[in-house]
Each structure stands twice: as C-alpha cells, then as structure tokens.
Amino acid sequence: MSDRSSGQIDTVMIEKRLFPPSDDFASRAAIGSPEAYQALYDAAQADPEAFWAKLAKEELHWFEPFTKALEWEPPFAKWFIGGKTNVSYNCLDAHLQTERRTKPAIVWEGEPGDERTLTYEQLHAEVCKFANVLRSLGIGQGDVVSIYMPMTPELAIAMLACARVGAVHSVIFAGFSAEAIADRNNDAQAKLQLTSDGAWRRGKVLPLKETVDEALAKSPTVEKCVVLRRVENDVAMQEGRDFWWHELMEQASADCPAEPVDSENTLFILYTSGSTGKPKGIRHTSAGYNLYAKKTFEWVFDYRDDDIFWCTADCGWITGHSYIVYGPLSAGATVLMYEGAPNFPAEDRFWEIVEKYRVNVLYTAPTAIRAFIKWGDDHVDKHDLSSLRLLGTVGEGINPEAWMWYHKKIGGERCPIVDTWWQTETGGIMMSPLPGAIPTKPGSCTKPLPGVIPSIVDEALEEVPADHGGMLCIAHPWPGMLRGIWRDDARYSEQYWTKVPGKYLTGDNARCDGDGYYWIMGRIDDVINVSGHRLSTIEVESALVSHDRVAEAAAVGRPDELKGQAIAVFVTIKGDAEPTEELRQELRAHVRKEIGALASPDDIRFTAALPKTRSGKIMRRLLRDIAAGKEAAGDTSTLEDFSVLAKLRQNDE
Ligand code: WTA
Q1: Rounded to an integer, what distance in angstroms lies between the CA atom of residue 262 and that of residue 290?
Q2: At 647, which helix (H) or strand (E)?
Q3: Helices 48-59 and 287-300 sit at what angle, rounded to 10 degrees?
C-alpha cells in the first residue's frame, strides 16, 4: 500500500491472466514480436522529433516540405513547421494513382437495411463536388462549418470537403439538443450549418431539421444551412437560408483540387464536456493529427489491405473522426459505417452485420459490450463471426470479466483484444497493445505507443513507483495532441498544463505494473477516499462485474463521518436475476473476497440503467450527488437519458 500523505492511489486489483497473440496472428502481423515493438518504441523515445519527421515525410503528401519537426513553447506545440499539405488529399487523391482507386473506401449500411458502397474514386468525386458546394456558399479557409447529421456517407463527405477547402468542421453528435447546438455554434462562431431532414433511430424518425431550426434561431453567426434528404419527412425550408444538399450537388463540378494548407491549419474543433462548466472546443490541426491518426490506425489494428474494418462509434465523437474517417482513409482501408442502433430491429444487429460483410476488425466500446452481455448470448450464437481476427475497445475501462466475455464469445478465443486508451484531446490512441507483439492482460491498455512517453506522478509531482497509482501525464509533445481550446488559451493552460508543470495532464489516474503495463484507474475527480485509502472506481466496479449476476456497476464515494467517504455502488443485474436482499449480501461478500474488506460497498442500489453520457460513459458525478442525497448538479447537457436519473432519485430513500 502506498504512502497515504502523497496522494497516491492504492490498488486492490490483481489480474494475473496473460493472453499472448497466437503464432498465426503474430507471424502475419506487421509488428510481430515484443522485440519489434520495443525497437520501434526505443527509436521514437531516443529522438521523437526525428522519428516523427521521418514518418511525416514518408506518409503524407507535401505541397511544400516542412523545415522543422517541432516547435515547443510550452504549452503550445506546432508540428511540421512551414509545410503545406491537405488532409483530404492524403485520404483520397493519394490513392487514386494506386490500385486502391477502385477499392471500397466506405461500405455503408443504413438502419432500415439500405446499403451503399463508395470506392476511393467515387468518394473523391463526391468530396470534390461538395467542396465546390461549400465554396459556392462562401466557405473558405478558417470558416467554421457546424455539422449535425446522421451516420450517412454524406457526414464523412462533409468532413472531408471542409478539409479540402481548408475550412474547420465542428461535428455535433446528432442526439444533442437545440440548446447544445446553439451553444457550440456560438462558441465556434460557425458560419454554415449542415444537417438532414431527419435521422433513423430504432425505426423512428429523429427530426434533426426541426432541432436545427430551433438552434439556428439562437445562432446568429450561422448564415446558411444545407439539408440532406435522408428520411423523406416534411421539413420547413427557410427561403434564402436553407438549401437542399441534392440540389446543390446537381450543379456542382467534380473538379476541385485540394487547397494546400499550412501544417498547423485547424482541421476541426470537437466539443467535449468537462465534468463541470461549459463544453470545450478541442482544437486539432492538419499534418500532425493526420499523421498520428494514420500511423496509430495501422499499428494498433495491424492494418491489412483486404480488411473490412468496423468502428462502431459515431462521427460525432473523436473515435469517429480518427478511426472512421481520417485514420483508415489515409491508410487506404475499407471502413464499414453503420447508421443505426445496435438493438434494431433486434439485439443481434451487430452480429448480423459482422456476418453479412465478413468484418475482420471490430472496434467498439465497453458500454456496448456490457449491453450485449445483458441481452444474452443467444443473439450472438445465431451468427457466424469467424471472419473476425481482431477486436478493440475504447471509451472507458473494460472490466476484466467483460473483457473475458468479449474474448470468448465474440473473439472465439482467437482474436487479440486491443484495449485502447486515449482522449478527444490526444487525437489518436496513446496506449494499446500492438496485437501481434504485446501479450494482453484483461483490463490493462498495456503499453504506450511509439512516441508516447507517459509519466505517473503523485500530488508532490514525484514519479510513483511500480504498482502505485497516481495522475497520468504525458511527458513529451506528440503530433496528434490538441493545439488548444477554441478561443480560450487560458483554459487550455489551466486545465492541462498547470497542475503538473511541463507535462500534459490527462485527468485520469493510472498505475504501471512491474511488467510495464498500464492500468487506467478512472478520472482523478472520481477517486474514492475511504479511511485515507484512495481507491479507484474501476477496481471496485470490476469486482462487482465479476459476479455472474451483475451486468454493470458504478462506484462512487459519499460523505461518511467516520471513514471520510463510504463506498456507494449502483448495480445493474442481468435479465434473469432478482434484486433481493440476499443478492445484496452476496455482492458485498463477493467484493470482500475479490479485493478486500476495505473496498466492500457500504450502500448497494439496484437500478435498471445507469446514467450515461451520449457517448456511453457512466456519469459518476451525478451518482455521487444521488448517493450523498443531493440533487444532481452541474452540466447535464450530455446526459443520454434523463429518465434514468429520475428513476434513480425515486429509488432514493
Ligand atoms: C476514458 C475517447 C480506460 C478515460 C477516445 C479518458 C478510457 C476518457 C479508455 C476520454 C480505456 C477512454 N480505458 N479509460 N481504454 N478509453 N477512456 O474524450 O477516462 O471521449 O480520459 O475520448 O475516456 O474520453 P473521450
């Protein structure tokens, strides 16, 4: 146990299972041994600038070469100084002189079951046309385009067209409210809005245009709005402001050379909500982000030219930006894009899609995996998943038992799992196994990628020893890092660079074990402090989830006179289990047995669902307030389902 005065975090979780890749997988992987990984890592660590400069020259197209790899004036970094490139060129034009010209770039399935495939050549033509549409609407370099669209190919086309003309996109997930859109539009000073008549969600129409109309009434900087026809519902079109996508495209030419832009030209802003306060517009730029998304895609997913790669995220999140659009397309991959919900028309939709398209690599989130576990194995058993060769997760920690289920049930015990740790701010994956090289441990994101130099420190800013938890920082700039918060340098400095001077503060806690494997322990703000022991949420939750009747769990601290904090847990049980007092006792005993009396929960509440953000993360800060008997405070604009909160409050006696 750690020295309690220094603010280190105690670990109570010991996971000994180790899963090396099969010989077959490793022998075919681009990086196929621990030694190969280490050699790459060491080369990058010895001279990060030279490492990235070499890759940038090889991997991106340069209209003008850069003269210097990095300019680092903490906390502001610039990469590939003086160079001119274009991200849409790297994603499209770069493949047109190769065999990939006729290869599918996007294979799309709509929620109602409609299908479309766009080859690189076709995608290029669509992007060029829409780039000309943008130009005809007065959009050029530096203008902000707000995108609120369903997961259709046009969403990717819109993003790439912005990149092509040097404009800045701000994609807003199509589940956000009018208020949330207006806030983001105003902060970004967006000039153009892109949307659709509606979106399909579990067979029903979400009226996106109506929501946008409400938002635009409060978005004075937005001059025009382009509307994609998707669901064919009736929408009001405002004369002079609103235009139909298909009408503008009919007249557009497919000839639109990519605009050479500076390496540091802003490619996009993406709003992410902090635990308090208003959402921040995370700013990413062109060359460094592009390189980082491309290389991390190739390394982590052991990219092979004939792969069908399916990332189930929405383009409204960073995962969709980096691993549906920019990473895979600049690598020349075929990406599958699915419009709808995982449980429509039934809970086996994902497995039906895997079987139908012979998906090889599946990248999804722990929240989805826990839902599949809850829905039961029958839905999986109906389908042939033998095409899968690699699985990935992102977004939250994955509890070891959920990992084991993913490994056995979806991966057939043959697919490596890449548990990828990263953030909107980091632009791309920072820690993850390279699947042919690094044996995995359930619950660990294993090792840093080449060029990523993690550092875990305590409150005294001292590096903690192995197996002690502390604040996870990154000690050296990397090309994919955020360049700032949109129009708020002070907040950027304060949030990420002040508490631990000279290092990027991730906001997560982590520990590194004796084998150099990293374990994310949850957000710094979520730590539970019991009698001076600082415990991580994920460890308590993982102990609960390892009970065979628990599907999902969230642990929070609540004030306690004696112990400082007591542990309150919210538990969702599997379909066939009953929420009885016996089960409550059993769970308490189970946690005590798994990780010790110290972490045994004081309060156990059963709930049908946990409150989550729209991207699927458990909102522990709301649960903290409920556990403490307070009303849920703070920003709830990202909450997925308010009714969940209301139900939790009702159960709160
Ligand atoms: C959490 C998503 C544990 C973490 C790409 C991080 C994870 C935040 C993992 C960023 C993982 C993401 N294991 N925790 N593999 N991946 N997280 O900005 O707390 O939506 O700081 O980016 O999600 O979430 P964001």
Answers
A1: 13
A2: helix 642-650
A3: 90
Q: Helix 208-216 and helix 178-188: axis angle, to 10°?
A: 50
Tell me: cis bond preceding 153? Omega within 30 of 0 counts. Answer: no
Distance CA(537)–CA(567), nearest Å, equals: 10
* pTM value surpassing 0.85: yes
- CB-based pocket (< 6 A), ligand 1: 272, 317-319, 394-397, 419-424, 445, 506-508, 520, 523, 615
Tokens of 565: 């904090």
The second-level CATH assignment, the architecture, of 525-650 is 2-Layer Sandwich (3.30)
Q: Tell me the two tokens of residue 634.
A: 């703070």
Residue identifier of the C-alpha nearest atom 12 of ligand 1: 395
Task: Give me the mean pLDDT over the 563-572 stretch.
Answer: 93
Task: Report the topology of domain 23-45+83-445.
Answer: Rossmann fold (3.40.50)
Question: Radius of gyration (Cα) for the chain, nearest Å?
Answer: 24
Domain boundaries, the chain: 23-45+83-445, 525-650
Whether residue 2 is predicted with pLDDT greater than 70 in this model: the reply is no
| Per-residue DSSP letter, 183 | H
Tell me what the pLDDT averaged over the chain comes to. Answer: 94
523 pLDDT more than 60: yes
What angle is formed at CA 15 by the lines to CA 436 and CA 533, rounded to 5 degrees? 130
Q: Residue 421 C-alpha to ligand 1 middle, in angstroms?
A: 6
Per residue in 355-387, pLDDT (tens digit) is 999 999 999 999 999 999 989 999 999 999 999
Q: 563: pLDDT confidence band, cut at 50, 70 and 90?
A: confident
Q: How far is the CA of 528 from the centre of ligand 1 (A)?
A: 19
